[in-house]
Each structure stands twice: as structure tokens, then as C-alpha cells.
Amino acid sequence: MRLESQVEIKISRFLYVYKDFYVENHDMPDLLTHYVAGLLISSRILRLRYAMLIGLVGLLPDIDVLFRIHRWITHSLVITSIISLIIAVITLFFFRRYLQIMILATILYILHIILDLFTASTPILWPIYNNAMMIKIGVGGILRSDKINIVFNSTLYYEPADFSQRDEIEGPLISSIGVILTITTVIILLVEYYHKYHHRKSSVHT
To answer: In the chain, how long is the greatest CA-to-CA distance?
Structure first.
């Protein structure tokens, strides 16, 4: 008797879950992850020493912790877009040579907000939409003798944006994900450096 494998794909519908309480989440991106992600992207365009400096822009959304408020208007894509547009116009007319850097800095800033969106409630559409949102996406698989199950899960949580000051703000500075990303980034940069050095050395000999 021949058993034919079957692939069953179950797609769960997109769930809108209203939450009256703050979504507790302990796997939010740490500061190291935000910085290294920005460094890796900016190093594609700028020299490493400049990329290390511009990468700090990826930490700016979290400046709200200085006011003991986390996920504040600094995490709003609406506010970010308005401010970025104003800065872009000024840069275009008066500091055109820095326009590329300004665009790169905006991308790194927005990247921070997007990463946060997948880990905890983030008011990305404030003040147009007064709720903070979090998206969870996952793909699970179950392998059996006669079939394979693949399950797609996507959930959208939302709750009223809370901009109240807290007695204390707690968050990760360095996590395992941050360390893994750092090691990966260092390896990428070393491989690129070796490739450029080898190519330059070969050019000299030819």
C-alpha cells in the first residue's frame, strides 16, 4: 500500500483582539539590536566609521524613556513622517549634500518603530488613530508519516495608547538576539573587508 503525502495548509484568519490592559512582552528589541540593525544598513552606503555614528539614530525613538514614558509620540509614524518631510525640504534647499544622510537617518528611525510593532503595543498611527497596536505573525509546521501541516497565524492586538508617566521604565539593553545579530554583522563586515582587501591586492599585482 502506497501512502501519498498530503500538504494541508491552514490559514487562520486575521484576528483583531481588543485588550484593556497593557500587552506584557519580554522579547522586545533591545538597544543593541536596534543599533546593530541600523549599523548594518548604513554600512551598505557609508564608510564604517560614519555608519557607526548614523546607526545611533536607530535609538532615538526610545528617547521618550527620559520622560518615563515608553512608546510615546516618538513611536508614531504619522509624527515621524511630518517632521521628516519638514527636515527633508529644509535639507533639499539649504543642505542638499546631506540629503542622502537625512533619508538614511529617517529609514533607521522608522525601522526602530517597525521592529517595536512586532513585539509590543506601539502607537504608530497616533494621532489619527488613538490605539497602540502590536502584530504577531508566525508559521508553524507539523510533520507526520502521512502528511505535513503548515499553519499560518497572524494576530493584531490593539489597546488605547497610554502616554502616562510611569514610576519606572524597564527594558532590555542587551539580549541574546542582539548578541546573535552583532556576531552576524561583524562576520559580514569582516568578509567584506577581506574581499575588498583581496580585490585591491589582486589589482595591484595585475
So the answer is: 77
User: Contacts by 18-22 with C-beta closer than 8 Å and gap 24+?
Assistant: 18/158, 18/159, 19/157, 19/158, 19/159, 20/159, 21/159, 22/121, 22/159, 22/162
Predicted TM-score (pTM) of this structure: 0.80
Give per-residue pLDDT as tens, 72-112. Answer: 999 999 999 999 999 999 999 999 999 999 999 999 999 99
Q: What is the CA radius of gyration of the chain?
A: 22
Instruction: List, for residues 139-152, the tens digit of each pLDDT value.
Output: 888 888 788 888 88
Q: How far is CA 81 from CA 15, 46, 106, 129, 130, in A?
A: 28, 23, 9, 15, 17
The alpha helices in 12-152, defined as continuous H runs, are 31-42, 48-54, 77-94, 99-117
* 75-to-3, 59, 143, 157 alpha-carbon distances in Å: 53, 11, 40, 16
d(C-alpha 42, C-alpha 27), whole Å: 25
Q: Which amino acid is at 199?
A: H
C-beta neighbour count of 131 within 10 angstroms: 16
Please state the φ and ψ torsions of residue 24, each to the nearest 5 degrees: -80, 130
β-partners of residue 140 are 151
- Cβ neighbours for 177, distance < 8 A, ≥ 6 positions apart: 27, 29, 30, 33
Q: What is the pLDDT of residues 15-39, one digit of tens each?
A: 445 444 344 444 567 899 999 999 9
Report the C-alpha gap between 113 and 34 in whole angstroms: 10
